[in-house]
Amino acid sequence: MAARVYLNAAPLDELVARAGLTHREFAQACGITPVTLSRARNGRPLRASTLRALALGLSRLKPLKGLPDDLVTATPPSDGSRKRNVT
Fold it and tell me: How many CA atoms lie within 13 A of 35 on its CB side?
């Protein structure tokens, strides 16, 4: 089983805001849909293709100092932002 990777939305939101973009514009720059970005921001595990697209989108932003070390994590969000189905 492949390891799961999650997006830490707070640092991404800060980067997108500092670049002067909306989430929709950032998703377009990444080549993903706004729905895919929203799902990632809300705690869904990232697919490898989505992670690559986010990295590409971030590389297209204006040069930004201080990229966060915690943009992605192996731990799902614990703030209750993601609803989980229990089966």
Answer: 0
In this prediction, residue 42 carries a pLDDT of 94
Cβ proximity of 44 and 72 under 8 Å: no
pLDDT for 67 equals: 65
pLDDT at 47: 93
The segments of the chain whose pLDDT lies below 50 read 82-87
Q: So where are the chain's domains?
A: 6-73
- DSSP E strand stretches across 17-80: 72-73
Tell me the sheet residues that pair with 72: 7
Cα gap 63→19, rounded to integer Å: 9
The token duo for 20 is 């002067």
CATH T-level topology, domain 6-73 = 434 Repressor (Amino-terminal Domain) (1.10.260)
